């Protein structure tokens, strides 16, 4: 990025604000701050764009203001750049935009929300002077299989209906207080955001008619049951099936339709909870073994191996990294 891009970081706030002067600078900003994306605009020379960014853990928030432009996540860029599996949730703060993915398109106006999946191609078309809030987080943080969330990509969530009526003002206020991420209580904020967005998605899925609506609704009920009982060590397919008056075979079939098994889903959700607690300074006095046991991992060595395989670092390394950030 050349010298005409001006970075303005508020002292101690943890919010990075960057202003670009050309379309190339804007494209570089997105590539370096978000992920590789193709950017086009009729404003090929003068392009005054602005991004405010903050994040904590694996959740990132961006507020982008720019002239008319188009952003694409192309198959080539997806293949070339391994940035992980993320969802993005966009909220229009000002102006108008269009989100396109999975043969659907959603026109968003002020207060409207849409979700899209960065592992598949998508396009964003923003009007002149559009101001957009974006929350980006790993797919596994939401307790829904990607196949179910895929029913809602590039779908407009009306700011005046359903849970979107609560999520929209929450995200709007969040963008006005991005410095909260850097404060002591900010460790819980990323998970609160994702939990709220996940609840909105579940609500929308309950309202969306599908050919397998009964099976989909039952699957969501079972996933909710699993989420509420992750701390129970004896949470197994047999007990889950019995609690829902279905056979273990039918239970497995419901999950396999979405590309997962019951056991792998339970393990993933437990690991996510463990990761959340290990990254939370309020749990610093709890031992790694105690935190693991709280979420059903009763064998420390097995937990450590499983955790490192999933997150690439050991549980203790996660905790040390949090301590170092707090000390800094």
UniProtKB/TrEMBL annotation:
Gene3D superfamilies: Homeodomain-like (1.10.10.60). The keyword Zinc does not apply. One of its GO terms (molecular function) is DNA-binding transcription factor activity. Residues 220-321 form the HTH araC/xylS-type domain. InterPro entries: AraC-bd_2 (IPR035418), AraC_XylS_family_regulators (IPR050204), Homeodomain-like_sf (IPR009057), HTH_AraC (IPR018060), Tscrpt_reg_AraC-type_HTH (IPR020449). Keywords: DNA-binding, Transcription, Transcription regulation. PROSITE patterns: HTH_ARAC_FAMILY_2 (PS01124). This is AraC-type DNA-binding protein.
């Amino acid at each position: 990025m050349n010298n005409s891009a001006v970075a303005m970081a508020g002292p101690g706030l943890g919010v990075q604000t960057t202003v670009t002067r050309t379309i190339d600078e804007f494209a570089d900003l997105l590539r370096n701050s978000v992920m590789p994306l193709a950017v086009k605009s009729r404003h090929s020379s003068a392009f005054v764009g602005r991004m405010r960014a903050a994040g904590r853990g694996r959740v990132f928030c961006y507020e982008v203001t720019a002239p008319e432009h188009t952003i694409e996540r192309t198959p080539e860029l997806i293949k070339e750049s391994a940035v992980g599996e993320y969802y993005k949730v966009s909220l229009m703060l000002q102006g108008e935009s269009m989100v396109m993915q999975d043969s659907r398109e959603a026109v968003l106006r002020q207060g409207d929300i849409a979700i899209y999946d960065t592992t598949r191609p998508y396009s964003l078309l923003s009007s002149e002077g559009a101001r957009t809030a974006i929350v980006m987080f790993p797919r596994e943080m939401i307790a829904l299989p990607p196949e179910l969330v895929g029913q809602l990509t590039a779908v407009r969530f009306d700011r005046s209906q359903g849970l979107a009526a609560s999520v929209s003002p929450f995200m709007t206020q969040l963008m006005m207080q991005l410095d909260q991420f850097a404060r002591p209580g900010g460790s819980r904020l990323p998970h609160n955001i994702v939990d709220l967005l996940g609840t909105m998605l579940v609500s929308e899925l309950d309202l969306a008619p599908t050919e397998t609506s009964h099976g989909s609704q039952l699957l969501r009920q079972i996933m909710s049951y699993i989420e509420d009982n992750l701390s129970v060590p004896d949470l197994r397919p047999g007990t889950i099936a019995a609690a829902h008056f279905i056979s273990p075979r039918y239970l497995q079939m419901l999950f396999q339709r979405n590309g997962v098994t019951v056991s792998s889903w339970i393990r993933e959700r437990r690991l996510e909870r463990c990761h959340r607690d290990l990254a939370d300074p309020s749990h610093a006095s709890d031992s790694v073994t105690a935190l693991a046991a709280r979420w059903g991992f009763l064998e420390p060595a097995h937990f450590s191996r499983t955790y490192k395989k999933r997150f690439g670092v050991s549980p203790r390394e996660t905790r040390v990294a949090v301590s170092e950030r707090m000390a800094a």
